[in-house]
């Protein structure tokens, strides 16, 4: 079941990769979330970033085209993006090869194909290079995992003691009926996550210092069937620390 779901996601995002973040509503969503991540980086996410210590490492899982990687680039020296979709990884690496002022100056950003949630994770992900990250995060991909709890456990394994696991995704809203079906539904397991759910999955993985912060305002999704105005969703940042 898990492998079939992963394959559905791989096919869907391979097909979507060349047009994933080019529409105005997608760019607006990315801008808003990036701004929130950067405003919260040295306070809510990881206060240690404020000192700009050298050598920090980020694991951007389900990296897509690299929104989280670029948002945290001003503080991170080495970033590894992992995604199940080869074509998304191609886009990630293409964007990483065109450095901005925040991604150059001895910074390394590399994307590879891999699946941490497979019952037998890729052997290529077993080397020391894929452990002991300062931050391991998922941005706008958590609702595509067959088991969010397992995802948190696997990410917690990859961060060093004292490291942070970060999730950026949609809030669970009371009006679940407002969700409009789209062609992505077969790749989605949840339409949002409550603070209680996030505290439960973080705690279940043995993580501490759990936080849940809701981004001001909303983002607009203009998916299939959403109509001209789209639907408005609230976004949260959830974080916790490995003891």
Automatic annotation (TrEMBL):
Please give the Gene3D superfamilies that the UniProt record associates with this protein: Vaccinia Virus protein VP39
**Gene Ontology molecular function terms on file:** transferase activity
KW Mitochondrion (keyword) present: no
CDD domains the UniProt entry points to = AdoMet_MTases
UniProtKB keywords? Transferase
Stated name of the protein: S-adenosyl-L-methionine-dependent methyltransferase
């Amino acid at each position: 079941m898990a492998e079939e779901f992963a394959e559905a996601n791989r096919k869907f995002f391979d097909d979507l990769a060349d047009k994933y973040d080019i529409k105005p509503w997608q760019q607006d969503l990315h801008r808003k979330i990036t701004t929130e991540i950067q405003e919260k980086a040295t306070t809510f996410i990881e206060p240690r970033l404020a000192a700009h210590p050298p050598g920090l490492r980020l694991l951007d899982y389900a990296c897509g085209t690299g929104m989280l990687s670029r948002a945290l680039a001003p503080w991170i020296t080495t970033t590894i993006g992992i995604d199940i979709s080869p074509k998304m990884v191609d886009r990630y690496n293409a964007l990483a090869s065109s450095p901005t002022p925040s991604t150059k100056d001895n910074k390394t950003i590399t994307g590879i194909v891999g699946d941490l949630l497979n019952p037998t994770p890729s052997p290529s992900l077993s080397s020391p290079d894929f452990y002991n990250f300062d931050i391991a995060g998922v941005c706008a991909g958590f609702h595509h995992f067959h088991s969010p709890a397992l995802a948190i456990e696997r990410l917690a394994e990859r961060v060093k003691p004292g490291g942070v696991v970060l999730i950026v995704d949609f809030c669970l809203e009371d009006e679940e009926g407002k969700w409009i079906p789209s062609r992505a539904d077969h790749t989605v397991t949840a339409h949002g996550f409550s603070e209680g759910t996030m505290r439960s999955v973080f705690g279940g993985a043995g993580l501490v210092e759990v936080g849940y912060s809701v981004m001001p305002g909303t983002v607009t999704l203009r998916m299939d069937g959403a109509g001209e105005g789209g639907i408005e969703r609230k976004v949260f940042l959830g974080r916790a620390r490995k003891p």
